[in-house]
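User: Sorry, what's this?
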Amino acid sequence: MKGRSDPDDRRDFEWDKIHGIDVRHTLLAEKDLFDRLKRLLSIRKENDALACGELVCLYVDHYLLVNFRLVESNFTLTPINNE
């Protein structure tokens, strides 16, 4: 992937390839992770509270993080388990 001067230095990252390998067809474990990340990014883009809402950390410990995000009447509650 090359980048030069403006505006070429802002080219999109080639998410379908890792070190020139087409992840969609070659590396199945990586494809699964890739597909999950694509879905999570899609959910974030569709939801204003996830993309730009005010962030409030409700709980945190060694294994758990719980966030609340709010934009106008749209809110999300996001638990993240690290076990």
About this structure: The chain is about 30% helix and 35% strand. The radius of gyration is 17 Å.
